[in-house]
Design goal:
The protein has one domain: Growth Hormone, Chain: A, CATH 1.20.1250.20. The chain has 15 helices and no strands.
Length: 442
């Protein structure tokens, strides 16, 4: 209980922030469609958001080191609010793309501040419990944000006001907290090459989860609005996806503790393919809600299982670096997916969205199913324990993960790689690989 009391203000900030975040992620594609933007432009703006998220993960630690946590959070939220409100004055074009990039960077920066503070204020023995509570707060707040959108149907400016209220309220608990600010955040360390060499399966799952769910977040609302012509139904459709993922994650996680995770990831990809095809054919609102929940159950679990697979193949002091690689690769896949599928919808029509997602899911599943068992394969009984999580986090959250207990302290004491890794001193990313990296990993 003591650990929860010490982070209660941060969890309250998270609830307000993620409610506003969930609302704005659904509202902006709807707004763009109502303004007459092409699906390609909507997809491009979604791609810019995830590119901004990726940039924010790399830049924010330096901002925090210069001005501290509270000032950084306040500045980032002020940037988010000003940028978001500017969108109410513009009807599309390059301005929307640039602003959505800034929104992504600011939101990732806010996550970084909150999650680093959570890690610092939580006893190491309570890391797993606090991370689970944080994940529940994130998912439930994002789902709540969908329902709040239906309160704003009378005036197109009301969503701008409500999102601003939620984000503004998020600033208050952090600004008034008595908890001491933590140490500066270590720079984000990642290596896509090392992740691929450690586990081809985790690499494919991370990229695939971003491709699948990034396209859903960027374009799913546009698809449903064009199909139903009912803006009030869109939030219910998105909320069903979030809740489906929240409910299914732990059963799928328990299964992945008992079954080779290659097979679990393959099954999830096949499930994504089947439910995506179902979404492309469904016309009734009931069928759309059920297929959305089923698609969310499979798609939202891909990231967590991929992270668990990366943990299986991590050395003792590598989890945070490889976990960061999984998260950033997910963002990269989301950015690329929004762009490619937005163009596909413009070229082939709205109905091509979930057909394309289904084909992509099938290809990722085929890749993971064909991976041979190599010398670095992990026996089922030796797999790391599954931890429920979501990609709506910054890399710093991985230090809260109980699987990172071996190297969290070293990361905060000094921002440098494990002794066994050679580093590029300017980028902070692993460049050279040891001999075991050259072994093909399943």
């Amino acid at each position: 209980m003591g650990s929860l009391r010490s982070v209660s203000s941060l969890l309250l900030t998270t609830a307000f922030l993620l409610a506003g975040h969930g609302l704005h992620m659904t509202f902006l594609p709807i707004r763009a469609a109502e303004l007459g933007m092409s699906t390609f432009l909507v997809g491009l703006s979604g791609s810019a958001y995830f590119a901004g998220f990726l940039t924010g993960a790399l830049v924010t630690p330096r901002i925090i080191a210069n001005v501290g946590h509270i000032r950084s959070f306040t500045a980032l939220m002020a940037t988010f609010l000003c940028s978001f409100l500017l969108l109410s004055f513009y009807n599309g074009g390059v301005t929307w793309i640039a602003i959505r990039f800034v929104l992504g960077a600011a939101m990732c920066g806010a996550y970084t501040v909150i999650e680093s503070w959570l890690t610092d204020q939580t006893d190491s023995r309570a890391h797993g419990r606090v991370l689970s509570i944080y994940t529940v707060v994130v998912l439930s707040s994002m789902a709540l944000g969908q329902y709040l959108l239906n309160l704003t149907t009378n005036n197109p400016l009301h969503p701008f006001i409500l999102v601003s209220l939620m984000v503004g309220c998020a600033i208050i608990p952090v600004s008034l907290t008595r908890s001491p600010a933590p140490a500066p955040v270590p720079a984000t360390r990642f290596s896509f090459t090392k992740l691929y060499r450690r586990s081809h399966t985790a690499f494919a799952g991370a990229l695939g989860s971003g491709l699948i769910m990034g396209s859903f977040w960027s374009l799913g609302a546009v698809y449903i609005l064009a199909l139903t012509h009912d803006p009030s139904f869109v939030p219910w459709f998105i909320a069903a996806n979030i809740l489906g993922g929240a409910v299914a994650q732990y059963p799928i996680g328990l299964a992945s503790d008992r079954i080779d995770r290659r097979y679990v990831l393959t099954f999830l990809c096949l499930a994504c393919a089947c439910t995506a095809v179902g979404l492309s054919q469904a016309t009734s609102t009931t069928a759309l809600l059920w297929f959305s929940a089923a698609f969310g159950a499979a798609g939202n679990s891909l990231y967590a299982v991929s992270l668990a697979k990366a943990a299986d193949n991590s050395k003792r002091d590598e989890f945070v670096m490889l976990g960061s690689s999984v998260l950033l690769l997910n963002a990269l896949g989301a950015s690329g997916g929004a762009l490619v599928f937005g163009f596909t919808m413009r070229w082939l029509g709205n109905e091509a969205l979930f057909i394309s997602v289904g084909v992509s899911s099938l290809l990722v599943g085929l890749f993971t199913s064909l991976q041979p068992r190599g010398r670095t394969a992990v026996a089922t009984e030796a797999q790391s324990e599954f931890v429920g999580t979501t990609s709506a986090m910054a890399p710093i959250a991985l230090q809260q993960d109980p699987r990172a207990n071996d190297d969290v302290e070293n990361l905060f004491e000094k921002d440098q790689p494990p002794a066994s890794d050679a580093q590029n001193p300017t980028s902070g990313c692993s460049m050279d690989l040891d001999a075991s990296d050259k072994i093909r990993a399943c």
